[in-house]
Amino acid sequence: MMRLLSIGIDCVSAAIFVIPALAILQCTIYRKWEFKPFCVKLIFAFYAIALFSVVGVPAVGIFQVDFGLNLIPFADIVNSPFAYMKNTILNIILFIPMGFFVPAVWKNFRSFKTMFFMGLAVSLGIELLQIFTFRLTDIDDLITNTAGTVLGYEISRRFSFPFSLKSVDSKGILVRYEPVLILAVMLLISIFLKPMVSDGIWNIVLSGPWWER
């Protein structure tokens, strides 16, 4: 329950920055603003915010270096098999939407190799950021997150990539890497801007009389 509340607060807190940032990004890339493509990409942007919330991307004000590393794959499966399997399944599910959504919308991401390396790169970036938190930087997460992206890609491919958007200039470099740009902007919002709003919302939530009951 608390996890869902935290994700909801993060998404609401980020909305004030996500919507105008995405609108500016769309106008910069395509030289115009279209409602339907904007709404589709807005869904992806909020998925990214929720993803960064779940994995614990740190806010800039609470950065702390913690070199908790696990570089041995599947080392914990013997010690706590049920907890390990639960974490593995959740990590896979968490990245399936990215593997499904990106190739479904952006045609130039419709290859196994492209989505494999995208899932790997995003997961690696998250794991490196976790060095600045209390969370463990774990190679197992890298493997399962990438597997989730690939699984999402395969599901999207089976549906024949149904949600394709027509690009104004499909050869432009900004158009070509648009989902990467959206992820990068959402990451910056999650680290630098969202905490300014979410901290205030948490103060209101935790001090409310309904919470004390």
Structure characterization notes:
29% of the residues are buried. The chain is 71% helix and 2% strand. It is mainly α. It has helices at residues 2-30, 35-55, 81-105, 112-129, 139-158, 173-176, 178-207, 209-212, and strands at residues 69-70, 137-138. The longest helix has 30 residues, at 178-207. It is built from eight helices and two strands, in the order H-H-E-H-H-E-H-H-H-H. Helix 1 crosses helix 2 (35-55). Strands 1-2 form a two-stranded parallel ribbon.
| SSE run | HHEHHEHHHH
Number of strands: 2
| Spatial shape | globular
Q: Let me know the average pLDDT.
A: 88
Distance between the termini: 16 Å
**Radius of gyration, in angstroms, nearest whole number:** 18 Å
Helix content: over 70%
- The helix/strand class is mainly alpha
Q: For the report, how would you describe the main beta sheet?
A: 2 strands, parallel
SS strand fraction: under 5%
- Describe the strand arrangement of the main beta sheet, using strand numbers: 1-2
Treating each run of at least 4 consecutive H or I residues as one helix, how many helices? 8
Which residue ranges are poorly predicted, with pLDDT under 50 across at least 5 consecutive positions?
Answer: none
